[in-house]
User: Fold this.
Amino acid sequence: MSYLIASNLDEVISSLRDGSGKARVVAGATDLYLQDLPYGLVDLSALPETTVIEEKDGFVKLGAAVTHTAAASSPLVLSRARALAEGCETIGSLQIRNIGTIGGNVVNAAPAADAAVALIGLGAEAVIIDIEGNRRQESVENLYWAYNRSVVDSTREVMLSLQFKPCLGGEGSAFTRFAARRALALPMVNASARVKLENGLVKEARLVAAPVNPAPTRLLKTEELIIGRSINEETISMVEKAAAEEVEVRDSLLRCSARYRLHLVGVLVSRALKTAADRALDPGKAGE
Amino acid sequence: MILKTPEKNTHQYGKVEGTGYQSPEVWSKVTGKAVYGIDLAMPGMLHGKILRSPHPHARIKKVDTTAAKALPGVRAVLTGAELENRPFGIAVEDELPLAVDSVRYIGDEVAAVAAVDLRTAERAIKAIKVEYEELPAVYDPSEALQVGAPQLHDNFPGNVAWQREMERGSSDAVFAGADLVVEENFTIPAINATYLEPIACVAVDDPYTGITLHTALQSPDAVRNIVAKALNYPLSKVNINGPVMGGGFGGRVYGNLKVYILSALLAINSGSPVKIQLTREEEFTAGRPMIAAAIKMKMAVKSDGTILGREADIITDNGAYSGQAPWVSKTLSERNDSVYRIPSIKTRVRLAYTNKIPTGQYRAYGNQAANFAAESLIDMAAKKLGLDPLEMRLKNCVREGDITVHGLKIGKCGLSECLQAAAREIGWDHKKTGRGYGLSVAIHANGSLVFDKKFRGASALARLELDGRVTLFSGEQDYGQGTHAAFAQIAARALDVNPSQVTVESKETKTAPFSTGALAMRQTTVGGKAIQLAAEDLREKIFKAAAELAGEPVTMGNGVLYSITGQNLELAEIAYHYHNTTSGLSLTGEGKFVPEESDYDESGYGNISVAYSYAAHAVEVEVDKTTGALTINRLVAAHDSGRIVNHLTSRGQVYGGVAQGIGMSCFEGYLFDEGRVANASLVDYKIPTALDLPEIKPLFIEVEDPAGPYGSKGLGEIVMVPVLGAVANAAADAAGVWITDLPLTAEKIYQAMAGWECEI
Amino acid sequence: MNNLKKQVLIFQLNGEPMGILADPAESLLTILREKLGLYGTKAGCGKGECGACTVLLDDRAVNSCLVPAGKVQGRKVETIENLSQGGKVHPIQEEFVEKGAVQCGFCSPGMVMSAHALLKENPQPNPEQVRVAISGNLCRCSGYKQIEEAILSAAEKM
Assistant:
């Protein structure tokens, strides 16, 4: 076993090549205890490009090794992507948020990872580079291979950063979760929303709920349903119903019954939508 | 006469501030210097690991340890077939150190290994091959009691570990003549004590001098007795030496006997010290939670709210082995009957073996589980009769001079005052709209005779050291609840010295006086009384020695003796004088407290304790109608525990006990999937975090009770009891529906409000 | 990459340079307790679920059980042992005793370190900020109330 804190991207790539499938990338490395350890770990959290938070070329860009704490407290994230700040500030505990990263949250591919749910709601893309040097961009929602398994192969691919369009005039985002305890708890349901209003009517919407599938799930039908509508009580109760109808969930002994979870999906998605819409109408609320 | 200022502080970090006195150990703890069980290491120490059954019920066909024994670094491998089969147990002897013929729960101990390091021990465990023949298993206790259910133990036919039926008064007549009968079924899951430090034990065996177990226990003497019997060692060759204890809450009264016995056996067989430390997962899957209970209860009342009688049919879930479950079942089935003037009761309680984790005990011993049922029923009746739940409780609650339905003699009692104070503080008379309010009351014994009818008290020694300080020798353990600070204060008061001059020594069973242990809320009342008597005895002996030294009568103030002619004598001088004139003896006071009052008959009727503590809690909650989420806003905890010895540690007991009560009310409880513990981690078994608790207001109604030292009584266990009923009643008040199945999750509340058929 | 099981790890520990040869996949907690004898940091679960093992990594509270030793290379680690040196105790520790915040004491070192990290970043926290800062530290004894009082009081005195 070796542990390398890489100082540049070339070092990451060459270490993965040398490891020929037995070395893998880590960032926060908080979930290592869950796994059989590979032969080598390549830590990318010291790379300058993986910890940057910036607005550039019309995108909010966050390095994959940005910690949950850093994302939750970044003025840029708070003002341009409130959902991500909300998703990050409720994960695990402060100790975990201080070291766990948003890239790790995506690549670990847990079905209800809070940061990932927020990122998918925001329409984030991941910038990935493989050991051949090929660079590609993928929607975060397309990175889920199976339960707890990502499309990103950490033995030969590196997620460098995540990026999405900022919520500017007329746009707002929000994240909600419901758990049995206020800290150190996985959510029964979490949800995020991003909405763009024009003349008080929904022009674009992204709604996400989890855990309803192995991956956080876009509620495409519900999104379509609300286009052109204003966010009023009628729309909200319509969303509550439509969101619950659009997903299939299972009973969970540990979390809750399927029926209750469906109910929560409706409640949380509509709460997220309402808050996102409030923020879209009043940009001053975006950072609140 | 000039009196010297008492020594402010002998410990470099210590401080004394009146009734907020803290033992010096707290400084070791807060600086990270305190040595806990998990921190211990001995020269040449091996690491032990236990192989556990993956099946809930199976016959062991073959155990092959060849590969494990062949691993380099493995020093001992034990299986049940190779050991002497010496059954042991607490209330019932139904366990063996390792399974011989069959395993009865997922986690049952099958083999044990000692190796040079933990990884080797883990590898060795994996290398042991066991062939099982799976047997039908039973998980539900009421199914276990039915004819034809899979049987767990040959000598307990019908899976009945223990049972009891009792009737006091004539219940049928009472119920026939009642204006109202309320009836309900309540269920309470198994609860894990969740002390934060996992159990660890280092066994050091010396074939010539005996065995020492370095492990922290609430009842080291009781465990020593069981271990000695299981090992077939003379009692005096078994010593338990307690490091600092990382929490107990009843869970470490007997801790995990398998760990102690197996570490001892591994040490004996390997010839080296052996440490076994449970993982957190093992604590959840093979520890000793408090029994789950199903309580069917009904109550007969008059239209004016007078309680006429109560009947209960209770089934408790013992799991695979019995631990203290019979005693917990007993307290669960009767203690709550004594908080009200109930003329008649009829109770049946059956403790059933199931193929699940064995059970033990937890703070308040089932009294809190019964509180949930009985106190919910009071509010259900009050609602039907249109009565104020406060008035109904005040009308029925016990008062000084009463003898309860089970024969408890109510001495000094501030229960009514607690009720009134709690109600006033929560704002009972000006409730806010949109909030729910609930009340509950409790009584709890101060040392119960259930454990040993012949041994009912406590003893202590108080020794004057040559430097003038005082050492108390007591068997009573302090693991943060403040017992030793209280003892120092009690002795300091008797001796007229500063508490910081008093040290409490209770570490090793071979030197400390025998104690029943830190259980049954006995330590302050019973253990503290022995301390008071020992200190008073020492005081008399000091006077006598001082008078001899001074050649005239003496009096005492602030730790200094002075004679009528004005001679000042320091305690150290007197200690030296006695030491010299007796060729080395120390002035030692003896205290023995043998309560004469307490006793009970065959039916369990009688005054089982020297004193009782009382409490009333009031709660304000809110319920989110769209999700069912319950938020507790405020909790007022009014307690009559007599004179409060230490306000700082007493407040700590209230906050902590209430937090545990809220955990049990709202979050906690074992979840099983076919006998497997489904929530075996601190993320899935949820105890409250700092963000999950309401504003908690302790109120002390200090009714001095002469039974305890300087009028004080126990507090540590009763603090969690009324939380259960009060939260349930407040939740029902806010939601408009009753949840009778703990914990009160958002899902259950929402389901009930929405009128869904129960799915869980 | 090399095939060695152990690596030389150089980091700052409690204000002093530290170099050890260790398996970088071991947790920082294991290194502190078993290699360096710093048993003041407690182990309650090994999975980041209790906070008893909280230490500061570059001034931020982390669960040392979740930090692979390799990650501390070149960084700054502070443990409970650093807070009471030369016969002095830290004001946070003093207030913990003063307010009765220590019962069994097993969570105390981790709790103190979480408080230490909070006050470094935010010297005047409000009660809710204190509760958030210690919400990753489970305590079964205290109900957290006196711990919260102690941290607020320490902030005032510091």
Remarks:
- The radius of gyration of chain A is 19 Å.
